[in-house]
Design a protein that fits this description.
- The complex is a heterodimer of chains A (about 270) and B (about 300).
- The two termini of chain A are about 30 Å apart.
- In chain A, strands 1-2 form a two-stranded parallel ribbon.
- Chain A has 11 helices and 2 strands, in the order ααβααααβααααα.
- Chain A has about 270 residues and is mostly helical.
- In chain B, β11 (about 245-250) and β12 (about 250-255) form a beta hairpin.
- In chain B, α2 (about 90-100) packs across α3 and α3 packs across α5 (about 130-145).
- Chain B is elongated and about 75 Å long.
- The chains are: A mainly alpha (about 270), B alpha/beta (about 300).
Chain lengths: ~270, ~300
């Protein structure tokens, strides 16, 4: 073969892919598949059914008081249950469907792809908030026509704090994302996420019953308990410290390992 | 344009790619040929940074792939056409890639037309695609960014004969316009028809490389001809009498002689020939000879 130097590729005129484009592409990936689309449609259908149910029941039963925040947090609660699956699918389908081969060939700087995906997951929490407010306003308006005396355009004391709820939702998305990155397998990641998010804090709480010393220590690990005051909007004392430490341990660590795994993984 | 330099990839004790070096020149189609599991795909994955090499390096146009800004605009890659989300439509896959590369939307329609996917087919989800359609979509994906280099792993897999012919002319004209093409295959005839340069690989090692002429010229061995006559028996007898070894083969005979020698014997024996050709150094023989120590199935065990 020839010993002449290989011709060079003129790349000087090409700009690297800006992060914004990667983000938009990844955002689109979260709903352009059949599974992703139906997950979102399912959330929409469930929200409509439950809101309709509440409207009818409160109108028929002459409920004494019904608040804007009641209507807003119904979609919030339903979404918080299903939305982490969007975060999980965003990561695991690249592996199970092997499309990571195309994704990382177009953007070899894998960290940017991972960051874009994580940001998409977090943004869905913000989309949730917007949806909660829109749905809350619309349904409250309908309710004020159906039961004008009982409907109140205000928050009820029993409902969470909006900001605290969104941050909590972001943590749930990040946890789903972290577990997905760690396992790179859709069914396993979904199962482990639900166990980790709903069951694990209960186990920690049960262990805490053994003694005060252990419970005081677990207060710094149990992210669900630590997030409670934030959701209720009454953070005080070392609550912030507990929240940050427990999130770093329970969400930050798996996330770091998951990212490390994707960075090193052989894509095939 | 593509330079593979002493590339080695090991998985534990298993060496998938063993000290492989070669170059692919612009304006030429380089065929990467080897039996299954020879290390072709691993080499190509290392090329585009999906697999880290154990030793050695690969550069494209003098740059490691990961250092190419917006690589889709310079290097078109198709490593596995089936590696797409089955729930996404064909058009959506191309649209996402166009978005990532910063290409106008019309480019997607253009490429769909180039690879012969109709708008109706492009709207279907990939789970409903045949392997041939997936392959066409993959080629559209590789061509989308108008790259100067194409790296294609088994691109003809699943294409029908018309599709294979189409792809051959597509890649040929791409190379004629100065593009660099590296394509792998385990099908010899496919590479034989399209490649200007060939790299033969077996068990992770390069067995031979060069253009077809060089490869065949380097092969020693006595001349053999394949001949078919109206009266094979008479020709066989005449050839044996002339001192050449004759073996029946297919509808005719295989003779250890040059075509000229066979023709002269036929002339003097007054036998009408219907087919006479050089059956000696075929690429297939060379391929099997070189890869036989590395083949899964022993050849020649049955006569």
């Amino acid at each position: 073969m020839s010993t002449a130097p290989a011709p060079a590729l003129n790349v000087s005129a090409t700009r690297p892919v800006p992060f914004g484009r990667t983000f938009v592409a990844e955002f689109r990936k979260s709903f352009d598949t059949r599974a992703g689309m139906w997950l979102l449609i399912t959330i929409g259908i469930l929200v409509s059914i439950v809101e309709l149910f509440i409207l009818i029941v409160s109108a028929v039963n002459d409920a004494d008081a019904i608040y804007f925040s009641d209507f807003a947090f119904v979609p919030g609660a339903i979404t918080s249950l299903l939305l982490p699956v969007v975060a999980i699918l965003l990561v695991t389908t690249e592996w199970s469907q092997r499309s990571a081969m195309f994704t990382f060939a177009l953007e070899p700087r894998r960290m940017r792809v991972i960051l874009a995906k994580w940001l998409v997951a977090v943004c869905w929490a913000i989309v949730t908030l917007a949806m909660m407010i829109v749905v809350g306003v619309v349904v409250t308006a309908i309710s004020s026509v159906l039961s004008p005396d009982a409907t109140h355009w205000s928050g009820s004391s029993g409902n969470p704090n909006f900001l605290g709820f969104v941050i909590f939702q972001m943590l749930a998305m990040s946890t789903g994302f972290a577990i997905a990155a760690l396992l790179l397998n859709t069914p396993a990641a979904i199962v482990v996420f639900f166990l980790y998010w709903y069951l694990f804090p209960g186990i920690l709480a049960a262990i805490g019953l053994i003694g005060d010393g252990i419970r005081n220590l677990l207060d710094w690990i149990n992210f669900q308990d630590a997030a409670d005051p934030m959701i209720n909007g009454d953070m005080a004392g070392d609550d912030w410290g507990k929240l940050i430490v427990s999130v770093l341990i329970c969400i930050g660590l798996p996330l770091a390992f998951g990212i490390w795994r994707i960075m090193r993984a052989e894509v095939k | 344009m593509i330079t593979v330099d002493h590339l080695t990839k090991t998985y534990g004790a298993f060496t998938a790619v063993d000290d492989v070096s070669f170059q692919c020149a612009p304006g030429r189609v380089t065929g990467f040929l080897g039996p299954n599991g020879a290390g072709k795909s691993t080499t190509m994955r290392v090329m585009v940074g999906l697999t880290p090499p154990t030793r050695g390096s690969v550069t494209v146009g003098g740059v490691p792939y990961a250092a190419i800004p917006n690589p889709g605009r310079h290097v078109g890659v198709l490593l596995d056409a089936s590696a797409q989300h089955s729930g996404r439509t064909g058009r959506e896959v191309l649209s996402l890639a166009a978005l990532q590369m910063g290409l106008p939307r019309q480019r997607v329609d253009q490429m769909l037309e180039v690879v012969g996917l109709t708008p109706a087919e492009a709207k279907r989800r990939i789970r409903n695609y045949s392997l041939g359609m997936q392959q066409r979509l993959g080629i559209a994906h590789a061509l989308l960014g108008d790259p100067q280099v194409l790296i294609l792993d088994e691109p003809a897999n699943g294409l029908d004969p018309a599709g294979i012919r189409w792809m051959r002319s597509l890649l040929k004209s791409y190379a004629d316009r100065g593009g660099t093409v590296l394509l792998s295959s385990h099908l010899l005839n496919e590479v034989d028809l399209i490649a200007d340069e060939m790299i033969l690989i077996g068990r992770g090692r390069i067995l031979a490389q060069g253009d077809k002429k060089t490869l065949l010229a380097g092969r020693h061995g006595a001349a053999t001809s394949l001949v078919t006559a109206l009266d094979n028996h008479a020709l066989g007898t005449a050839l044996t009498a002339a001192g050449f070894a004759v073996q029946p083969r297919g509808a005719g005979l295989q003779v250890s002689a040059t075509t000229e020698q066979v023709g002269r014997v036929a002339l003097s024996a007054h036998v009408v020939l219907t087919d006479l050709r050089d059956g000696g150094a075929s690429l297939e023989d060379l391929f099997l000879e070189l890869t036989s120590p590395t083949q899964r199935d022993a050849i020649g065990a049955t006569a």
